[in-house]
Amino acid sequence: MLAKGIATSLWYIPNMLVDSYILPECIVHPGSFGGLMVMYEANYIKLNQLVQRLPECSGHRLSHAPNGCNLHLIIEERTKYTCHLRLTYLFADDENADGKETIADPDLLAKVYFDARMVEVKGWINAHRHELLRELGRRYYRPLDLCWTRNIMLNKWLDYLLDQGHHFPGDCPK
User: Fold this and answer.
1) How many other C-beta atoms lie within 10 A of the C-beta of residue 5?
2) What is the Cα–Cα distance from 143 to 107, expressed in whole angstroms?
3) Per-residue pLDDT reduced to its tens digit, 123-172
4) Is the pTM of this model over 0.90?
5) Chain centroid to CA 105: how far?
């Protein structure tokens, strides 16, 4: 949760990453459940910097960054208090002879809890093309470890996307 004095001043810092201002209400340790909840909250803050008016968005959106790949945001399911979204890049499959197939990589599925102000990664691409991601999957296989790995990946990726200039404006279609 954000400290009361800091929370009001954060609205005046439009593009600054503010997850460092999250003050946990308990002592958290990396790999702990409490620490994971702090990570969920940090991911919510960063995702809201990337996607304006997320609670109102639906459908498929595309973000263009000057020096990066096109980022796809797909709202797959929505309820009053949650939504399931997918963030991905789409690449042409060079191994396919006709070149019409695409590969989503990373293909990240997240659940956003609007009432709790948290984002939880529910899954990512099952057949990792990168050796480092395959190794992480073998090393961290317990449920809590998997949650940590997935959510740290989202946290770092959101930092990267924001640094690249990705942004989904507030005029999301309904």
Assistant:
1) 7
2) 19
3) 776 555 667 766 765 665 666 777 888 888 899 999 999 999 998 887 65
4) no
5) 14
